[in-house]
Description:
The chain is an alpha+beta fold.
Amino acid sequence: MKSIYNKIVVSGLAGSALLLGLAACTDDHFDIQESSVSGSQTVWKNIEANPELDSLAMILRRTKVMKTELDRGNKQSFAELLDQPQQLTVWAPKNGTYHAKHYLDMLDQADALRESDAITAMRIDYEVANQFARNHIARFNYESVVGNQQVRMMNSKLYNYDASANKFNGITVDAADRVVSSNGVLHVIEGQSKFVDNIYDFIMSGQAEFSKIYEEIHAEDKITFSPGQSTEGTMNENGQMEYVDSVYVNTNDLLTSAGALISNEDSLYVAIVPTNTAWDEGMEKLKSLYRYADTYWYEWSSTAAAPQGTGNFMKKDMPEMDMDSIANANAKNNLVKSMFIAPSRFRNVNIADSAALMDYIMTADSLDCTNGVILYNKNRYEEGNAKINPMFMDEEGNPIKPKKASNGYIIPLKHYTIDPAYSHMSKLDLKAYNSYNVASVNGTREGYDGMPITLTEGTRNETNPAGEPIVGSVDEDRYALFQSNDQDMYIKFRLNGIMSGHYKISIEMLPNCISNQYVQAQNAPDEGEVQEPVFSARIYDDKGNRLAQVSNLKVSQESVELITLWEDFEFETSYNGLPDLYTTFPYLQIEMTRRNQRSGKCDALSISRVLIEPVRE
């Protein structure tokens, strides 16, 4: 057995279920179970004996029992399965009530491709098995005397069966043709049971309008041999193990990154699925967040020499890489990560009410995707219908009509109108008292190089030394105190994960005397006035190039103040999504020179946090 196509392969829907943490469905095993029903013939023999079911019989003889789309370990046909001593219920469509030739043609196509393209052939086989054969067969006996009930089919779909009304999944059941068999019950129905896609089925159906997402996801498939799951045979003449059944596992990192069990029939998701046009538009927008430089400096050292003070990158000129491919991969990953929403996380929303659920989706302030991306509604507070999130509007400004899936809803996007500033660009809230956020500090007194201070009711001063009230709240009542040692003082904040784009940059400053335990950081006032500290701010890239500067900023000693450094600063270079081995970043440098200290007569800065926020319209 040397070709992988003659081996068991865990792939496709079940492979994605595996990689997303979904346990295998119990309906997929083929154990022999003793039947408790009567009848001299099996379900299969009764199908063969009914001339109105000969089209069905032709399909079932040729359709393989497959757990996954690349499963070749079990050569059993559905005809053979239905001839086994198990408990089964079959709803068999009558000749002429469905397009049987469609499935027979698909099986012919699979046979024609068997030698030249075995993977495509197996996927066609599986499509017939999953969407037709397994869609009409249920394990166990669902007694006809029971009223309305839900039936779990072999493909895990749940359909209504109302025995009293003779209806199965909306199709009329011929009550007179019910046949009790030795291994279950056979019902004859007036048409094909409609197969309803789950979200995974829909995305991976390869529809022409959605072919790009199908191709992009399949391109990430990784098929690897799993010796631990395979059955060993004997050693060959070269001393190598030959396996009786070899298991190949298909993983897909792109789907894994989404963090959604979209093939699970018992989950509920809303999927935002782009058409080919929307996919291209989305990729173009998201790639703008990954405008990479040709090379970067990396490996930060807090003691290395720098343009001012200390702290610099030790290694220069990152090894040459295909930055366009990295940008493309990151854009694709972000697009897929923002496709799925889990309504189970919503509060005070009746998710069983489809109208209420979709109204919430369309108008919510923000929507949390399954793997961290937040989609904000830029029109939430405008008048009238503008409350609808613009990403869910069509070209005429009407809400996009969702499609129903068996495990949720699909919102098809004809155009990608999602603004990255309202979704993929995140706010950075850098706490000054968290030492990780401070890349390096120099020119400070020992112990005052970012001393973390927590304010309490007993330690917060309500007035400054001049008797003026100190107003304003402090984020989390925590901050860091930096005090000069009579030298130029430099505080460098690392701006990790910055994407290329426009940002508002602010810093929250406090009066130095806000804590009664550290009033020594405040110089004594002259003539009853408290002097305001003076500082400057600069942004440097990884190579030490100064990108921007603001000078002579004063810190109020009467209030907690969020000082805007730049209303709209553009990082032209992205530092997000680079290979993990090369950690690099731009940095914000806060400076208090000796000249500042003399002019302000104050030698300390009290900083709560630095805020980096995407500029949004």
